[in-house]
């Protein structure tokens, strides 16, 4: 309890801090408790020792939680007060002074689980509860159990540890430990020290990041927490701002850090798949019929379905990378957040091809590149983009880069060829409109990409479509039969390791 309180620099910041803070109250309680425990533990003959011997130590597990909640509430009130003070202090002045750095915020308040967090709560032993009396036989120890030689060692050592707390950072309020003759065991001292360090690092990082906090308003608290964690784990240096808010995703720019000793690209994006579920309903069609995800889909709750989208994008990008199609490099996948390399430079994202204002020569080049990519995608990656258009191609360093492949499917998907036809229509319409005379008709493009020879004839779309659907049907029957034989297990892709599911 007091660990939590200890790091709160009330006094140094806020002249109007309450006369008696929660932290004070709690540390007083703690002091009393410690006192009692310290007295009972080495000399087992004292009154009260029976209690400990018989194991009837009061259960305090929920007290910690309660205290944390109280503390959090207290911190919030502190922040509110601080805001009022700040306002009063600055008044109408044009130049204002920010109190931001003194805020208490607990960004972890809606933490689900802290897998990658080095947190003091994770220390297995409650540092404040004396465990079984430790028998530490030392030189000169006279064997008669409950006695005094060890006690002196521990008392001295404990006092020394209390004194060493003076070396903690100035904002860590250690209280008058010596005055109350507090004796800290090595274990307690070490946890405190560890906690102070990690708390300091964390608060430093948070304060750095706050300047950009508008970016994070676009996402829900869970997502924000995941993003914080990535910064705290050093995967990201900084999250800068939002590049795009779409219906299904929000994309942030961030500075890369390092991941398991590997450097992360200097500039990355976080593609956050939106967890507002209703918008995803109409996409079921893509994923439900994708045999790679079929079995898993039916068993999952909606939040996990969203993660599947991110996972799909990751797998599809990996396939494209193999075929050397220009596309973002996957850095890491954390639940519904996909981190990948940034296409662009110095915080400026590459323009979508519809905005790129290309000259006619570049436009023609772009067309041939896209044609080639569509073929590669189909033949080498065994994929149909399924949302290919001038909105999902970026122009960067004289090349077309393909993005947004979460909905991409294999051509044998029950609607795969229809999706491909739609892609072809977008592409040929766009390039024809841009005056690329070489741009094929949608039908020729479709046949060229697939290698199929659906008769173009009178260029009747209904007829062409009917052919496609018939093909899909035939294919589906065939695939159904083969699937059970050939793919008893679904996922054959490789990619960065998935996060183990810690929650839900
Ligand atoms: P959505 O499904 O929301 O369309 P996209 O993957 O298309 O998601 O990303 C939305 C926008 O974010 C893109 O149009 C592009 O401008 C930008 N963007 C996405 N990924 C990257 C990237 N790796 N580098 C640069 N910009 C990107
Ligand atoms: Mg897009």
Automatic annotation (TrEMBL):
Family of the protein in this entry: Belongs to the protein kinase superfamily. RIO-type Ser/Thr kinase family.
Gene Ontology cellular component annotations, sorted alphabetically: cytoplasm
Region listing for Disordered, in residue ranges: 127-152, 485-504
Annotated catalysed reactions: L-seryl-[protein] + ATP = O-phospho-L-seryl-[protein] + ADP + H(+); L-threonyl-[protein] + ATP = O-phospho-L-threonyl-[protein] + ADP + H(+)
EC number of this enzyme: 2.7.11.1
Enzyme class: transferase
Any GO molecular function: metal ion binding
Keyword Hydrolase in record: no
UniProt-listed InterPro entries: Kinase-like_dom_sf, RIO-type_Ser/Thr_kinase, RIO_dom, RIO_kinase, RIO_kinase_CS, Ser/Thr_kinase_Rio3
Organism the protein comes from: Mastacembelus armatus
Compartments it resides in: Cytoplasm
Protein name listed in UniProt: Serine/threonine-protein kinase RIO3
Alphabetical UniProt keywords: Antiviral defense, ATP-binding, Cytoplasm, Immunity, Innate immunity, Kinase, Magnesium, Metal-binding, Nucleotide-binding, Phosphoprotein, Ribosome biogenesis, Serine/threonine-protein kinase, Transferase
Domain of life: Eukaryota
Main location: cytoplasm
CDD domains on file: RIO3_euk (cd05146)
Assembly and binders: Interacts with CASP10. Interacts with IRF3; RIOK3 probably mediates the interaction of TBK1 with IRF3. Associated with 40S pre-ribosomal particles.
Cofactor(s) this protein cannot do without: Mg(2+)
GO-annotated biological processes: defense response to virus; innate immune response; ribosome biogenesis
Domain RIO kinase: 208-451
Record-linked PROSITE patterns: RIO1
